[in-house]
Structure of ChbG/HpnK family deacetylase:
Amino acid sequence: METFICRADDFGLSKAYDLGLLDSLASSIIKNVSLLVNMPQLKKDVHQLLSYPIDLGLHFNLCLGKATSPNPSTLTDPSGNFFSSSYYRDRMQKESDPFREEDVDQEARAQMEAFIQLVGKKPDYIDYHVFLTPSIEKALQKVAEEYNVVCKLHFKKEKATSDRALFYERKEPFSTWLEQEQWPKEETTLLIFHPGFLDQDVFRLSSLTKLRCTDHAFLLDQEVQTYFRKQGKSIRYSEL
């Protein structure tokens, strides 16, 4: 039987997205949900996650919304907003790691403390939103060690929402995607989802839009659920 970490990212992004993600938990495939602690919607919705038998993670974010740390840094504009992902992608064409290590370290600690304040406990794991450069990885490993939190940032095989985009376009049965892949038997595979509904905030904040709805449909598909009951074991980060 194949073993998977099935993770849903971006909780806190918007009201509609969070509603869709919560709805997708009915399939029992998602065992890990990653939180954007700096997004205002999270404070309104996080209590709805607490009754589910899942792990909750810190989705470390440096390119969406406002910084959590109150101290000025190179990560934000004068209003305290993070620079966009497109801004960093442009910079990374010229420099491999445009993030200043001291500022990343400061923000990692601020987001960890924000998670604890919002959820009432430490995260079960830490992962990252969009970018993982050497400075980000070093900061996350450091804060994870200090807080004694799981921080597994690399898997032998990983598949994200964007990796399913072309398959989704073909409109084949969702379970076909699972059946045609070669999954390692001895190691855990990471499957990343962004299952949710859309509202104006999603379109304003993210370039990933319609695929979120398709991820939601994927997880609630009966044949996909049957696959996970018979062939694929979905586990939490805390079970690694």
User: Anything to note?
Assistant: The chain has one domain: 2-239.
